[in-house]
């Protein structure tokens, strides 16, 4: 059945069945669908949803008598043949007197901060999730090398949240996973980034502890026993880690988050990056025949947003490992996320939201959270939303203010950004590189433009830039 030509079929469905169908089409899990129906505490949410899907299939005439019992096939068939807009149209028509659509109601989801909790339904898996796992899985079967992944993006793209999911998935698959975060001030005090020897002690110690927490049966060596006063700090750290890693059997992976904290630190940035290069060339590859690789596969996550602040004029760790960049949300991903917030939003409104804030996950989440807790979501007014969200203490204000401060501290960068705001040509390649890495502009071949309408309008007002004949004086 094609609902674009036979939408009346959907009218055979009950409100509950339409709600289940809508949940399926927007990517909700069985538990989430069951919870939305008021049966979330059931021990068998999958069975509840399966029964409804079976009824839906029968009413829509999709039952294949020769394939009965193959539930996954019917789920895929529903996803392929049913249009979400058609479902919403029937819901609005049949249940308009009840107000909002089923599955769309106020919720108590808190606003997201840095990392999306593991059990939070708002995490949207993307291509980068699958790519990272595939690289690590394939790499674990090789005898001649181990993969190193550089997971990079601007702020708010979900690097730390991805690492959390990757950590859990790898652990479930039997990998031994260590994870450290350089942005953790309890483990890495500010002084460590001004003293390379201290940083090496903190780094090596934290890495071994992260593995030791899972391997109580192993008696790892003491750091001090490997710290020779006459040897280089990087050599001490490498020797200690080599000994510790050699004690761990099985596939192992090391996740390092917050690597950007070292950017701009004269005493530690280059030495640390040189050490990582050395590990990639000498420890993650089979250099000596018949001597096994003991170092783990690695995933390094860092933000490119600080590049302008520290004058970074090229890719850090260039040609090291495999780069995986997180992409912005697509229309379908925003649609799926809106369903998690129980927000009624049309495809046209999603397109408006994407024009306003792009597909930046953090800003999209801020907006949808606001819509879900604000009566304005019954008839979203994007002009009004932009106005109150950019005011002091508005949901976007802190993010916008941070970019403003960075630009004001770098006059050359600001002047080139103003040119782009005006639609003029910017010939400064380094400025374009840094503005792109900060997430303020997009570069597509020779076309350079401001990332989104929010940035275009806000910063044009902020910096008194006249565009298209308008004055901001």
Plain-language structure description:
The radius of gyration is 26 Å and the shape is globular. A hairpin with a 2-residue loop joins strand 6 (441-444) and strand 7. Helix 1 runs antiparallel to helix 5, helix 3 (45-59) packs across helix 4 (71-81) and helix 8 (196-212) runs parallel beside helix 9 (233-246). The chain is built from 18 helices and seven strands. The chain is α/β, with parallel strands linked by helices and 473 residues long. Residues 1-5, 67-72 and 97-106 have low confidence and may be disordered. It has helices spanning 15-25, 30-36, 45-59, 71-81, 84-95, 127-139, 159-172, 196-212, 233-246, 269-282, 331-341, 347-357, 361-372, 382-389, 397-409, 411-421, 429-438, 453-462, and strands at 148-153, 176-181, 252-257, 297-303, 322-325, 441-444, 447-450. The N and C termini lie far apart (58 Å). The protein folds into three domains: 1-105; 127-325, 3-Layer(aba) Sandwich (Rossmann fold), CATH 3.40.50; 397-462, no CATH class.
Topology:
Layout: H1 15-25, H2 30-36, H3 45-59, H4 71-81, H5 84-95, H6 127-139, E1 148-153, H7 159-172, E2 176-181, H8 196-212, H9 233-246, E3 252-257, H10 269-282, E4 297-303, E5 322-325, H11 331-341, H12 347-357, H13 361-372, H14 382-389, H15 397-409, H16 411-421, H17 429-438, E6 441-444, E7 447-450, H18 453-462
Parallel strand pairs: 1-4, 1-5, 2-3, 3-4
Antiparallel strand pairs: 6-7
Task: Briefly characterize the structure.
This protein has 473 residues and is an alpha/beta fold. It has 18 helices and 7 strands. The chain has helices at residues 15-25, 30-36, 45-59, 71-81, 84-95, 127-139, 159-172, 196-212, 233-246, 269-282, 331-341, 347-357, 361-372, 382-389, 397-409, 411-421, 429-438, 453-462; strands spanning 148-153, 176-181, 252-257, 297-303, 322-325, 441-444, 447-450.
């Amino acid at each position: 059945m094609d609902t674009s030509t036979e939408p009346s079929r959907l009218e055979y469905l009950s409100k509950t069945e339409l709600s289940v169908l809508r949940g399926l089409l927007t990517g909700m899990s069985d538990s989430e669908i069951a919870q939305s129906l008021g049966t979330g505490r059931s021990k068998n949410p999958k069975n509840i949803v399966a029964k409804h899907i079976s009824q839906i299939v029968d009413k829509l005439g999709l039952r294949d008598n020769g394939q009965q019992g193959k539930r996954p096939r019917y789920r895929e068939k529903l996803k392929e043949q049913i249009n979400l807009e058609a479902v919403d149209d029937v819901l609005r028509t049949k249940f308009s007197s009840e107000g909002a659509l089923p599955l769309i109601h106020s919720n108590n989801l808190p606003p997201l901060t840095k990392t999306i909790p593991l059990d939070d339904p708002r995490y949207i898996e993307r291509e980068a999730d699958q790519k990272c796992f595939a690289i690590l899985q394939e790499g674990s079967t090789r005898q001649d090398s181990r993969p190193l992944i550089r997971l990079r993006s601007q702020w708010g793209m979900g690097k730390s949240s991805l690492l959390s999911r990757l950590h859990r998935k790898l652990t479930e698959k039997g990998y031994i996973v260590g994870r450290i975060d350089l942005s953790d001030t309890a483990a890495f005090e500010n002084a460590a980034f001004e003293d390379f020897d201290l940083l090496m002690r903190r780094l090596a110690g934290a890495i071994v502890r992260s593995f030791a927490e899972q391997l109580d049966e192993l008696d790892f060596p003491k750091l001090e026993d490997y710290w020779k006063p006459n040897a280089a700090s990087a050599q001490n750290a490498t020797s200690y880690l080599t000994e510790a890693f050699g004690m761990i059997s099985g596939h192992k992976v090391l996740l390092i988050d917050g690597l950007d904290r070292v950017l701009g630190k004269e005493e530690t940035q280059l030495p640390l990056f040189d050490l990582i290069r050395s590990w990639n060339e000498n420890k993650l590859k089979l250099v000596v025949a018949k001597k096994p690789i003991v170092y783990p596969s690695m995933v390094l996550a860092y933000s490119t947003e600080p590049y302008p602040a520290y004058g970074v004029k090229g890719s850090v760790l260039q040609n090291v490992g495999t780069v995986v960049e997180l992409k912005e949300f697509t229309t379908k991903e925003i649609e799926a996320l809106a369903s998690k917030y129980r927000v009624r939003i049309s495809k046209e409104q999603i397109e408006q939201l994407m024009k306003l804030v792009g597909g930046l996950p953090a800003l999209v989440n801020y907006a949808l959270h606001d819509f879900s807790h604000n009566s304005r979501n019954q008839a979203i007014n994007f002009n009004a939303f932009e106005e109150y969200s950019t005011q002091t203490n508005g949901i976007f204000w802190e993010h916008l203010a941070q970019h403003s401060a960075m630009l004001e501290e770098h006059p050359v960068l600001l002047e080139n950004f103003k040119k782009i705001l005006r639609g003029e040509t910017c010939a400064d390649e380094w400025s374009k590189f840094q503005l792109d890495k900060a997430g303020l502009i997009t570069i597509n071949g020779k076309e350079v433009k401001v990332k989104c309408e929010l940035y275009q309008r806000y910063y044009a007002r902020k910096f008194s830039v006249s565009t298209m004949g308008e004055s901001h004086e």
